[in-house]
Structure formats: C-alpha cells, structure tokens
C-alpha cells in the first residue's frame, strides 16, 4: 500500500504541475498574445546568401524554365524528318537557365549563366550538323568579372569575359524572365549565332549610371562564322559574313531615364516589364559597327568587303496607371537601321518545328526557310513596337493572379524583299505569381515567300499562323 500511495502521490503532483503549466500558458496567451501569431507569413522570393550582415555582399542563384507547346502552319514545302508536313504540333523548352551572381566585395562582382535554348524533338538550333545533339545543348551563356570603380555607386563598372553587354537596343540584351511578350524581337540580337554565342561575345566593357544617363560601351572579339556549327554560306552577289579576316566590333547603348532608374545589377540585362513596380520612361540610342565584317562577290574576281553598321533609336515606357488597383502599361517603339552589306538576308524561326524544305520551294535559294521561319535579319530598316496593359491586382481573387494582354508588331523594309514585311503577334499573360509563375498564349501571323533564284527579290506568297502556349517558372 505504501508503494501504491507513493505512486498516487507522484501522479497527483505531475497532474497538478501539468495543469498549472497549462493554466499559465493559457493565461499568457489571453493576456499577451505571442507576436508571431499576428504576423502574416512572408515567403522569400529569391535564393540569396548574404556574405555580410548588411547584405551588401551576397551571392544569388536563379532558375528559369520556359516550356512551349506550338501549333504551326508551316511554310510551303516544309518537311519533318523527311515527311512533308503542312501543320505541326510540337513540345519544347524555349529556355532553361541557371544564374549565379554576387557582389563579393565593395568592388568585385561575378556573373555566370548556364543553360540551353530551343530544345525540341529536333534538338534544334545549337548545331544542326551534329549527328547527335540531345546532350550538348547546355553551355555557358555568360562568364563575367566586373570591377565597381566607385564604392556603392554605379558611375563606372569595368568588366570582361563572355557577356551579353551589347549595343543597338534594350532588346539586344533582354532579361528573358521578365519580358512582357511571348518572345523578344530576336532581330535586335543582330548577330545571334553567326559571330557570337547566342548573342554573347567575348568583350571588355564599361557601363554605368550617371544622373539620368544609363550607358554601356564595349569592344568585342567576334567569333569566325566558320565556328557556328552550320553549313558555310556561299560567295555570291548577296552579302554574307566574311570568311576571311578578323576585326574587332565596337558597340554602345545610351538611355536617358526621365523618372525611376532601372535596375543595374546584372551586366547588360534590361527588364521587360516591372509590372507597375516602377515608373520608367526612357529614350535610347544604340549602335554596333565592325569593319570588313561582310563580303560579296558581284562577279568572278570582284570580291568586295563591306562594313557592318547597325543603329537604332527608341522609346520605352513602363509605369503604373493606378497604384491602388495595380493597373499598369508597357510600351516600346523603336526604329532600326540594319546595314549588313548589299542584299544581306537571313531567315530564322524560334523553336522551328520543321527540319527541312523542298529545294524547289526555297525562296532565293536561302537555307533555313522551313517551318515557322521568316526573313528576320536583313539590310534595310525595321520599325518595332509593342503595347501591353496590366489589369487590376488579384483580378481572380486574392492570390489568384491577374492578366496582361499585349500586341506586338515588326515591320521591315529589306533590300532583298520586294514588299514591306509585317509580323504581328497578339497574346495574353496569366500572371499567377508575377513573372515567377505565368502562362502565356500567343498567336503570330507572318508572311511566307515564293520560290525564286538567288538574285531576285523575294515576293510575298501569302501568310501563315502559329499558336503557342508557354508556361514559365522562375525563381
């Protein structure tokens, strides 16, 4: 009994102590609630590690994936793996990227980007001549070291390496995770995969912001056309990239920022839309020039080398309309003068779903005219514009996102095309979580051209359409 009584006594003490503790917690909760219970949970929207207490020195990692579903009306004569196809449905990855960058000290900045582009069932774009390409798509896009001359000031940053720091226009170095439209105007990436590596070049540069002026100037060491992995162009009366010689390329971009200053952390990249978070209105002018970059042979023994001279002027607007509701607008209008030498013309199509085109259907004897391609680059003049409207915040209820419809127009007058070339896009973004999670539906209407010889100007044959669904995830 004694043992039993001791057990009862200990049990009673434990029960009493538990009751007293519970009463104390209850009393504490009712009279002075814990601070954390009234604070909303804040989700981090970045992968960032601070190297010092203030966070001025840091390392940051980002990941981007853009998956595309395409339904395309192909250009006449297009084939897919040897079979004629008028229409295609394809699935692919437009861009898959990883970035690592950081301010390592008051003066030292590092930027790296690794990833792949245009990966569909044809494994397109990187090296069309390779027998097996599925595992060689990913590569370093950028590898840059930068020195910040003035501590905590962006007056002058000097850098070098493989970089997209570029001239011509803001869309020559776009931040692809933040673009408003389905895709950027690729013609502004003027030498893409011809004498550069997916718009990146080995360069030394200076960039900065002084007052309202944002500037960048660079000297680039272009790659020979022989190393781009495609069949070499043939000499003829129409200009091509030179197969002999090697000259440096000079480029620059200057933007006058009337209101808010744009982000200036990562080298060269320009935000597509701030979704109303900034009030931005810029005027810009840019150029790219290279001596003897192009060549033509008008007649046997008559070889002429020509300079490449490209320049543009443009305006960019991105600002809120009503901060309380979250509505905003985005608009861009630019004029581009593109001189690649006499009658230069090159086709291109993003995530092209066709593999070839019947020889009898080739416009101007040019290659790469199948599928969704159109004359994207050429000697002449281009007007490009876009407009988008961001609807009110939480259009579908709290946490369910909003919509941003847009229109996109590219009008080109090229020496080697007989009429004005017009490419039109209309689309809508469903911004589930801003740019971090969004779905975009886009319809593009483009021209195709009649078969012709290599010297005759291309004549319009009709128009084709493409419907694309994109799902973007970014952190």
Task: Describe, in plain words, how this protein is organized in 3D.
There is one protein chain. By secondary structure, the protein is mainly beta. The chain has one domain (47-474): Porin (Beta Barrel). It has one helix at 2-31, and strands at residues 47-50, 58-73, 78-80, 83-84, 87-103, 108-119, 139-148, 157-163, 201-210, 213-221, 240-241, 249-257, 280-299, 302-322, 327-339, 345-348, 356-357, 374-378, 380-390, 402-414, 421-431, 437-449, 460-474. The protein has a 16-stranded antiparallel β-barrel with strand order 2-5-6-7-8-9-10-12-13-14-15-19-20-21-22-23.
Question: What does the secondary structure layout of this molecule look like, with pairings?
Answer:
Elements: H1 2-31, E1 47-50, E2 58-73, E3 78-80, E4 83-84, E5 87-103, E6 108-119, E7 139-148, E8 157-163, E9 201-210, E10 213-221, E11 240-241, E12 249-257, E13 280-299, E14 302-322, E15 327-339, E16 345-348, E17 356-357, E18 374-378, E19 380-390, E20 402-414, E21 421-431, E22 437-449, E23 460-474
Antiparallel strand pairs: 1-2, 2-5, 2-23, 3-4, 3-17, 5-6, 6-7, 7-8, 8-9, 9-10, 10-12, 11-13, 12-13, 13-14, 14-15, 15-19, 16-18, 19-20, 20-21, 21-22, 22-23
